[in-house]
């Protein structure tokens, strides 16, 4: 099966499984989404969604956030991991948003990626989910699955993103990246993926990936 045929199959099956793709991180606007995505680094979305209500009850705008001591932010977000670094980044980026963008989240990859704590993946999620700009954020699920399915060599996330954008239509990127994440969580775990469950890998996966199915 060619990569183009694989891509067509993936699109069809994921659309069948996940016709609706709610954003996994709870938020009400671009700023709260930005903070939630920043917190999700090396942390599950489920845990982030338990923490953000406490944080946003105190500060759901950059103007309110800079009124909180960094120590208070750190105390609230501690369960998300990397709390000292994340708390400092949240406080500093909130200050930058006020000083440079009138408290608004910028709508460009370049400006987002200049903010502390915001890498390319975080910027991609915000651009896609807050502003509807085509992007293909690559997290561990996407990197793993597109490697298993032979869409990419899987050498690094940069290559994975490049290959995803090459083989999948641009108008589907924002929805498809969520569909792949949902599939990974439900059907294709990192450890011990099962043949009768992970049907996409069993159908179009690389020889190595098929061999790893139990």
Task: Describe this structure as you would to a colleague.
This protein has 214 residues and is mainly alpha-helical. 63% of the residues lie in helices and 0% in strands. It contains 13 helices and no strands. The chain has helices at 3-17, 30-39, 45-58, 62-65, 70-77, 83-101, 109-113, 120-131, 140-148, 157-167, 173-187, 199-204, 207-212. Helix 2 (30-39) runs antiparallel to helix 8 (120-131), helix 5 (70-77) crosses helix 6 and helix 9 crosses helix 10. The longest helix has 19 residues, at 83-101. The mean pLDDT is 97.
- Fill in the CATH topology of the largest domain: Endonuclease III, domain 1
Compute the number of structural domains: 2
Largest sheet data: none
- The chain-level mean pLDDT equals 97
* CATH architecture call of the largest domain: Orthogonal Bundle
Question: How many individual helices?
Answer: 13
Which blocks of ≥5 consecutive residues have pLDDT under 50?
A: none
Proportion of strand residues = under 5%
What is the structural class?
Answer: mainly alpha
Number of distinct beta strands: 0
**Gap between N and C termini:** 23 Å
Q: Which H/E pattern describes the elements? A: HHHHHHHHHHHHH
Q: According to CATH, what is the class of the largest domain? A: Mainly Alpha
Q: What is the gyration radius calculated from CA atoms? A: 18 Å
The CATH superfamily of the largest domain is known as Hypothetical protein, domain 2
> What proportion of the residues is helical, as a percent range?
55-70%
Overall, the morphology is elongated
């Amino acid at each position: 099966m060619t990569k183009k045929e694989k891509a067509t199959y993936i699109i069809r099956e994921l659309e069948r499984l996940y016709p609706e793709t709610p954003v996994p991180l709870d938020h009400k606007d671009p700023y709260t989404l930005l903070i939630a995505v920043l917190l999700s680094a090396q942390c599950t979305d489920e845990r982030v969604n338990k923490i953000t209500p406490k944080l946003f009850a105190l500060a759901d705008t950059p103007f309110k956030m800079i009124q909180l001591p960094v120590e208070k932010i750190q105390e609230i977000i501690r369960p998300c991991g990397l709390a000292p670094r994340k708390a400092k980044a949240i406080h500093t980026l909130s200050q930058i948003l006020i000083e440079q963008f009138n408290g608004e989240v910028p709508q460009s990859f370049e400006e987002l990626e200049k903010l502390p704590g915001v890498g390319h993946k975080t910027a991609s999620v915000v651009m896609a989910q807050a502003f509807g700009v085509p992007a293909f954020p690559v997290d561990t699920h996407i990197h793993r699955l597109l490697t298993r399915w032979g869409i990419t060599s899987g050498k690094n996330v940069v290559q994975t993103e490049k290959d995803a954008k090459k083989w999948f239509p641009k108008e589907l990127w924002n929805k498809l990246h969520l569909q792949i994440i949902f599939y990974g969580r439900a059907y294709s775990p990192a450890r011990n993926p099962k043949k009768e469950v992970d049907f996409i890998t069993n159908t179009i996966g690389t020889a190595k990936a098929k061999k790893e199915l139990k």
